[in-house]
Amino acid sequence: MNNMYARRIIFGLALLSVLCFGASAAASEVAIMSVGQSPDAMMVRVLLRRMKVEPLYEAMLKADDLADQKVLIAVIGGSSKGLGAAGIDKEEEMSRAESVFDAAKSKGINILVMHVGGEGRRGDLSDFFVNGAVPYGERIIVVKGGNDDGLFDKLKGADAPLVTVDKIQEAQEPLAANLREWGVTF
Q1: 115 — phi, psi (to 5°)?
Q2: What are the residue boundaries of the structural domains of the chain, listed by start?
Q3: I need a labelling partner for 51 at 20 to 30 A (CA). Which of 1, 10, 16, 45 fits?
Q4: What is the pLDDT of residue 58?
Q5: In the predicted model, what is the mean pLDDT of residues 148-164?
Q6: pLDDT digits over 38-86, tens only?
Q7: DSSP string spanning 79-123?
Q8: pTM above the 0.70 mark?
Q9: Rg (Cα) of the chain, in Å, rounded?
Q10: Which H helix or E strand runs over 164?
């Protein structure tokens, strides 16, 4: 009888610790969003998972979705197919993104802007989102070819460092460095 009572106490304590500590571990320190509804945000999500960072990711992330994150990663890439699937136009998408940026700033969440599609993901639609999103970035990472015309340099803030990498896999190192600097644990 005594042994059974001890087992129940141990089981109860174990269950309580899983519930208490599991809930805190579930909250992500990083949120990731697409600006333009291209699949590029999913590629950045893969980089984060390789680093053992499980981001909050919603295709249509809204300002209300942000909580206690330390970093918002905005991945720019316009896709008319992605916008169509989401049932929105480019103006609605940019308005959504701006409201998320404003919420992040008001909550003290750092904003990292990424463009990982290189030259192939540039064009009028993507440039619309580049023009709207880059000024919000505290840091910017661009895959080679994506900034050949210097547009990111023109739009970024004076204090916002811009890093160019040859291919998306090489973005992992500067991405990790920024997350560490902003206090993300992984």
Answers
A1: -130, 105
A2: 27-181
A3: 16
A4: 87
A5: 96
A6: 999 999 999 999 999 999 998 799 999 999 999 999 999 999 999 999 9
A7: -HHHHHHHT--HHHHHHHHHHHHHHHHHTT-EEEEEE-SGGGG-S
A8: yes
A9: 20
A10: strand 162-165
Residue 128's Cβ-side half-sphere holds a number of Cα atoms within 13 Å equal to 16
pLDDT at 19: 40
At the second CATH level, the architecture of 27-181 is: 3-Layer(aba) Sandwich (3.40)
Nearest to 74 by CA among 53, 58, 50: 58
d(CA 77, CA 6): 57
Residue 107: phi, psi to the nearest 5?
-95, 0
CB 136 within 8 Å of CB 77: no
Instruction: Report the distance separating Cα 123 and Cα 39, nearest Å.
Output: 16
Both tokens assigned to 98: 């701006």
| Euclidean distance between CA atoms 45 and 55, whole angstroms | 7
